[in-house]
Fold this sequence. Notes:
It is globular, with a radius of gyration of 15 Å. Strands 1-2 form a two-stranded antiparallel ribbon. It has six helices and two strands; from the N terminus they run ααββαααα. The chain is mainly alpha-helical and 141 residues long.
Amino acid sequence: CLFPTATPSAYHTAAPVLTDEDVATFAASDILRSRLRLSSLRFLRFVGLALAQDEQVVEGPNFGERCPEICTYENHNWLRISRVLESLHSLGLAKEATALYSWLDRAHRNGVIGSGDAGARAEATKSCAIWARYAPQMEIM
């Protein structure tokens, strides 16, 4: 599993579950955190986002292509986003989790996420509330 969490997956029962020992190992290893950061950059590209020079998450070059798949209606990618945020936060990359959440929050408030029907907007609001718990110290821009 690319983004392990302490929460067992409801959909992939063989996915590893983080232990306190795993979290401590990540906290002590610059290499592990660096590799997780690389994985997060790959995930950002998957969803059409990128990391800017100032460490803020921004729309990437493939955003226009990925946005209809990711943002306009509630789908399994929203669950992936929840997993990524939880994993980054748990494994010592809270700054990266906050940067991603900040973009998600702005996109939701601007109608990008949940831009489909009323059901999608309602699901986006619920998902943003779930996502918010992984970036409690964030500053909305």
